[in-house]
Protein backbone atom coordinates (compact mmCIF):
# COMPACT_ATOMS: atom_id res chain seq x y z
CA UNK A 1 0.00 0.00 0.00
CA UNK A 2 1.40 3.38 -0.91
CA UNK A 3 1.53 6.57 1.13
CA UNK A 4 -1.13 8.26 -1.03
CA UNK A 5 -3.74 5.60 -0.18
CA UNK A 6 -2.85 5.85 3.52
CA UNK A 7 -3.18 9.63 3.40
CA UNK A 8 -6.52 9.39 1.57
CA UNK A 9 -7.90 7.04 4.23
CA UNK A 10 -6.79 9.16 7.17
CA UNK A 11 -7.84 12.40 5.49
CA UNK A 12 -11.32 10.94 4.98
CA UNK A 13 -11.51 9.80 8.61
CA UNK A 14 -10.16 13.07 10.02
CA UNK A 15 -13.63 14.66 9.87
CA UNK A 16 -15.99 13.80 12.75
CA UNK A 17 -19.10 12.89 10.72
CA UNK A 18 -17.12 10.69 8.34
CA UNK A 19 -15.41 8.92 11.23
CA UNK A 20 -18.77 8.25 12.89
CA UNK A 21 -20.22 7.12 9.55
CA UNK A 22 -17.42 4.61 9.13
CA UNK A 23 -17.88 3.39 12.71
CA UNK A 24 -21.62 2.89 12.15
CA UNK A 25 -20.97 0.96 8.94
CA UNK A 26 -18.48 -1.30 10.72
CA UNK A 27 -21.12 -2.09 13.36
CA UNK A 28 -23.60 -3.02 10.64
CA UNK A 29 -21.32 -5.36 8.74
CA UNK A 30 -21.91 -7.39 6.66
CA UNK A 31 -25.43 -6.17 5.83
CA UNK A 32 -24.61 -2.50 5.39
CA UNK A 33 -27.08 0.36 5.56
CA UNK A 34 -28.89 2.64 3.14
CA UNK A 35 -27.59 6.21 3.05
CA UNK A 36 -30.84 7.55 4.49
CA UNK A 37 -30.62 5.28 7.51
CA UNK A 38 -27.02 6.32 8.18
CA UNK A 39 -28.10 9.97 7.97
CA UNK A 40 -30.98 9.30 10.39
CA UNK A 41 -28.77 7.47 12.90
CA UNK A 42 -26.25 10.30 12.94
CA UNK A 43 -28.74 13.17 12.68
CA UNK A 44 -27.17 14.49 9.48
CA UNK A 45 -29.07 15.95 6.48
CA UNK A 46 -29.28 13.48 3.58
CA UNK A 47 -27.38 15.68 1.12
CA UNK A 48 -24.57 16.19 3.65
CA UNK A 49 -24.39 12.44 4.27
CA UNK A 50 -24.19 11.82 0.54
CA UNK A 51 -21.15 14.11 0.34
CA UNK A 52 -19.47 12.35 3.28
CA UNK A 53 -20.15 8.91 1.80
CA UNK A 54 -18.60 10.08 -1.47
CA UNK A 55 -15.40 11.10 0.32
CA UNK A 56 -15.24 7.77 2.17
CA UNK A 57 -15.90 5.90 -1.07
CA UNK A 58 -13.17 7.71 -3.00
CA UNK A 59 -10.77 6.91 -0.14
CA UNK A 60 -11.65 3.21 -0.51
CA UNK A 61 -13.18 2.97 2.96
CA UNK A 62 -16.76 2.21 1.89
CA UNK A 63 -18.38 0.40 -0.99
CA UNK A 64 -21.93 0.65 -2.27
CA UNK A 65 -24.44 -1.39 -4.20
CA UNK A 66 -27.88 -0.62 -5.51
CA UNK A 67 -30.71 -2.56 -3.92
CA UNK A 68 -34.04 -1.70 -5.50
CA UNK A 69 -34.37 2.09 -5.01
CA UNK A 70 -31.76 2.34 -2.25
CA UNK A 71 -28.00 2.43 -2.27
CA UNK A 72 -26.58 0.21 0.46
CA UNK A 73 -23.21 1.23 1.91
CA UNK A 74 -20.75 -1.09 3.61
CA UNK A 75 -17.44 -0.55 5.34
CA UNK A 76 -14.51 -1.80 3.27
CA UNK A 77 -12.84 -3.74 6.06
CA UNK A 78 -10.17 -5.15 3.75
CA UNK A 79 -8.97 -1.65 2.92
CA UNK A 80 -8.95 -0.66 6.60
CA UNK A 81 -7.09 -3.86 7.47
CA UNK A 82 -4.49 -3.10 4.79
CA UNK A 83 -4.14 0.47 6.04
CA UNK A 84 -3.64 -0.58 9.64
CA UNK A 85 -1.32 -3.41 8.67
CA UNK A 86 0.81 -1.01 6.63
CA UNK A 87 1.05 1.37 9.57
CA UNK A 88 1.89 -1.31 12.12
CA UNK A 89 4.54 -2.92 9.95
CA UNK A 90 6.00 0.36 8.72
CA UNK A 91 5.94 2.15 12.07
CA UNK A 92 7.42 -0.80 13.94
CA UNK A 93 10.24 -0.91 11.39
CA UNK A 94 10.64 -4.65 11.70
CA UNK A 95 10.81 -4.54 15.51
CA UNK A 96 7.93 -6.81 16.50
CA UNK A 97 8.34 -6.08 20.22
CA UNK A 98 7.18 -2.50 19.62
CA UNK A 99 3.86 -3.71 18.25
CA UNK A 100 3.19 -6.59 20.67
CA UNK A 101 0.83 -4.61 22.97
CA UNK A 102 -1.18 -3.34 20.01
CA UNK A 103 -1.45 -6.77 18.42
CA UNK A 104 -2.56 -8.34 21.72
CA UNK A 105 -5.25 -5.70 22.12
CA UNK A 106 -6.49 -6.23 18.57
CA UNK A 107 -6.78 -9.97 19.20
CA UNK A 108 -8.95 -9.42 22.30
CA UNK A 109 -11.39 -6.59 21.52
CA UNK A 110 -13.72 -5.21 24.15
CA UNK A 111 -16.46 -7.74 24.79
CA UNK A 112 -19.15 -5.24 25.76
CA UNK A 113 -20.09 -3.78 22.37
CA UNK A 114 -23.76 -4.42 21.64
CA UNK A 115 -24.96 -3.65 18.12
CA UNK A 116 -28.37 -5.25 18.52
CA UNK A 117 -29.30 -2.90 21.35
CA UNK A 118 -28.47 0.03 19.08
CA UNK A 119 -25.68 1.15 21.37
CA UNK A 120 -21.97 1.23 21.06
CA UNK A 121 -21.19 0.29 24.62
CA UNK A 122 -17.49 0.51 23.90
CA UNK A 123 -17.79 4.27 24.18
CA UNK A 124 -21.29 4.70 25.61
CA UNK A 125 -22.81 6.33 22.55
CA UNK A 126 -26.33 5.53 21.43
CA UNK A 127 -26.56 5.05 17.66
CA UNK A 128 -30.28 4.30 17.42
Automatic annotation (TrEMBL):
Gene3D superfamilies on file: Winged helix-like DNA-binding domain superfamily/Winged helix DNA-binding domain
Any Pfam family the entry gives: HTH_20
Top-rank taxon: Bacteria
Keyword tags: DNA-binding, Transcription, Transcription regulation
GO terms, molecular function: DNA binding; DNA-binding transcription factor activity
SMART domains hit by this protein: HTH_ARSR
Classification via InterPro entries: ArsR-like_HTH, HTH_ArsR_DNA-bd_dom, Metal_resp_trans_reg, WH-like_DNA-bd_sf, WH_DNA-bd_sf
Domain HTH arsR-type residue range list: 1-95
SUPFAM superfamilies, per database record: Winged helix' DNA-binding domain
NCBIfam families: HTH_metalloreg
Protein name, as recorded: Helix-turn-helix transcriptional regulator
Source organism of this protein record: Halomonas eurihalina
